[in-house]
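User: Here's a structure from my thesis project, written as structure tokens. My advisor, Dr. K., wants to see whether a designed sequence matches the one we expressed. Can you design one independently, without my sequence as a hint?
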């Protein structure tokens, strides 16, 4: 553990909706063990948590951001854009946390990923305008409308890269990964309808695509207890945070006792 504390740390945060509060719990545990990342890669909710972390916001402020930001507000609904909710309406909410709206003012190097829907490709953002790439990275279809940047429509980074290890590799000595897109074993009763089946298949595909990258981390935290929390279930915010904190604190304590683990 002492060896880790002397190394530069890269942190990779996956997408996963409300389950991403486990990322904040992980960061709290890292803080308590004197660990701080120098560079962060994030997708979807991982991009939002990563931005708040890179911005120097406290864990309390990070949780407040997600508790106070409404997922669904009637005046955010749209019928003129593809999606139920107009993602652009969240710009002012984000502006309160990122008033200077630029990557360059962040305290840590941040890389976020979003999907270019028109070109069918993924793109990384790490400089210039901050808020719109964050909105795009978290714009989960079909709930949230795509975000337009430079004449192109962008949506959730998790569509093509739910675990953006690539921009962090080679920029830190020790990589910590936090994956909240879990795919634990399910009882067949959990697959009763088409929506549940679709969600399960999508989750399996995302996990399979990212498995090699997950295994490349020096320390990977995955939280199986999160599978019972819905991606958009705001009631699960605190539970997801505690799952991330307790599991990470326990793991770091084990490393402290036995660095060879």
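Assistant: Designed independently from the structure alone:
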């Amino acid at each position: 553990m002492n060896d880790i504390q002397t190394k530069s740390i890269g942190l990779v945060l996956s997408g996963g909706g409300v389950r991403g509060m486990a990322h904040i719990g992980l960061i709290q545990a890292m803080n308590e063990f004197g660990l701080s990342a120098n560079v962060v890669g994030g997708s979807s909710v991982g991009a939002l948590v990563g931005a708040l972390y890179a911005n120097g916001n406290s864990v309390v402020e990070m949780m407040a951001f997600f508790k106070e930001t409404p997922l669904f507000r009637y005046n955010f609904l749209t019928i003129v854009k593809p999606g139920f909710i107009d993602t652009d309406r969240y710009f002012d909410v984000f502006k309160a946390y990122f008033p200077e709206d630029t990557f360059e003012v962040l305290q840590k190097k941040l890389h976020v990923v979003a999907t270019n829907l028109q070109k069918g490709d993924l793109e990384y953002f790490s400089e210039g305008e901050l808020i719109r790439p964050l909105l795009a990275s978290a714009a989960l279809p079909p709930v949230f409308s795509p975000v337009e940047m430079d004449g192109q429509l962008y949506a959730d980074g998790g569509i093509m890269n739910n675990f953006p290890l690539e921009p962090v590799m080679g920029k830190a000595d020790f990589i910590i990964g936090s994956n909240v897109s879990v795919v634990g074993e399910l009882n067949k009763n959990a697959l009763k309808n088409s929506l549940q089946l679709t969600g399960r298949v999508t989750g399996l595909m995302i996990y399979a695509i990212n498995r090699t990258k997950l295994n490349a981390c020096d320390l990977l935290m995955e939280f199986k207890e999160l599978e019972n929390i819905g991606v958009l279930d705001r009631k699960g915010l605190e539970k997801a945070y505690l799952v991330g904190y307790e599991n990470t604190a326990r793991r770091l304590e084990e490393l402290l006792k036995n660095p060879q683990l």
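When you compare it with your expressed construct, this may help: The longest strand covers residues 109-116.
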